[in-house]
Give the backbone structure.
Amino acid sequence: MSESSHKSAGLNTMRLLKIQEIAEFLNVKESTLYSWAKNGLLPSYKLNGLWRFDIEEIEKWIIQSKALPDTSRKTLKKATKAHSNDIDRIVKNAIDDATGKGYNSANGKPGQSQGLGKERKENGTL
């Protein structure tokens, strides 16, 4: 490949580092970096079985990985809790419907077994 085609492909500006260098740079274990690279979580190149990392891409990746501010985490936690409550309500309604304890839209009253509870107690039958 000629020098001009290297420049047009952007290869002249790449500075590829070994996994040991990136591990030291990020203060992360090499095994973690291998996992991240393998799963596509970290910008990387695999050249004939050897992992290489472009330092400029790693620096951009760090900036993009900036943590959420605390207020966003609180909002996320509230949204997760609300979603959990919705799921709990859906499950409860499904159980009530399956056991006949739920709202019966045909007559606007609770299910048959629930409505007879008081009457059964008064008659002494269970």
Remarks:
- The longest strand covers residues 50-54.
- The helical segments are 3-9, 19-26, 30-38, 55-64, 70-99, 112-115, 117-123.
